[in-house]
Amino acid sequence: MPRMMVARVYPHEGHTASPLENMMMGIHLRRYRFARDWLRRHLDGRPARILDIACGSGFGSEILSELGTVLGVDIDEEAIAYARGRYAQERVSFVVGDANDQAFLASLGTFDAVVTSATMEHVANAENFLRWIRQALRPNGACVACFPSAITMDWAAPHHKRDLSIAAAGELFARCGLRVLERYHETHRLRLSQIKAEFRTNSTLPVPPLWNWISYYLRHPHHFAIRLWQISPLGKGILFGDQDYLLVPQATAP
Q1: Using an 8 Å Cβ cutoff, are 141 and 249 in contact?
Q2: How far is CA 11 from CA 23, 25, 67, 114, 162, in A?
Q3: Spatial distance between the Cα atoms of 91 and 203, rounded to a whole number of angstroms
Q4: What was the pLDDT predicted at 2?
Q5: Residues 147-169: what's their mean pLDDT?
Q6: How confident is the model at residue 180 (pLDDT cuts 50, 70, 90)?
Q7: d(CA 222, CA 216)
Q8: In the 3-class helix/strand/coil scheme, how is 164-179 assigned residue by residue?
Q9: Closest listed residue to residue 145, CA positions, set 254, 243, 41, 251
Q10: Can you list the domains of the chain with their CATH numbers?
Q11: What distance in Å separates the CA atoms of residue 143 and residue 114, rounded to the nearest whole number?
């Protein structure tokens, strides 16, 4: 199997010496365990139908299956094929689908819980996506949404469509008829030397061409200033990403 890209995690394919890959592995596993534990409390132990959208290789769907039946959805056919071979069972199934396709989303039905990890920064229209989630949630249902709240588009472009601050996310959720019950926050750091080593050895990293970086920083000079501070002794290394876990239950009518 090729080495893991940032957006794909295969926990059972063995560990590497890469700090980036090991960090991403830990982030994704903690997300799903956090979602499982919080939803168990929120759902009060009742059997649930759960959607894991942008499920990747499917390991998170297996974690969530402790709460009920889980449908895992991802646009990547290769990832879904792996998920079916590794994690499909009586309570876990997988389908290929596009989170940008409103007709496909509508065909999925309703759920007691939706878990969406590292999706909002990728979809073409985050507001349409969240409005659909609200409509898909059953009464007393909840959504666990995970996304980076740090600057990412300078290194992740063109894979990310947007960066969301905590304030911007709150406004977005409110517009979509959703409210935040709880927030979980993590900060992750890698030294510049570790980032350089990863670039040299991992050709699957989605690193944009130099011109993309220059163009981005010319349009966002304050982001360039932030990055310079982060790699300075005061910044103590590279701030790889702040992850915020926003617990978003169905609210009153939007």
Answers
A1: yes
A2: 12, 7, 21, 22, 27
A3: 36
A4: 31
A5: 83
A6: confident
A7: 11
A8: CCHHHHHHHHHHCCEC
A9: 243
A10: 15-191+241-249 (3.40.50.150)
A11: 5
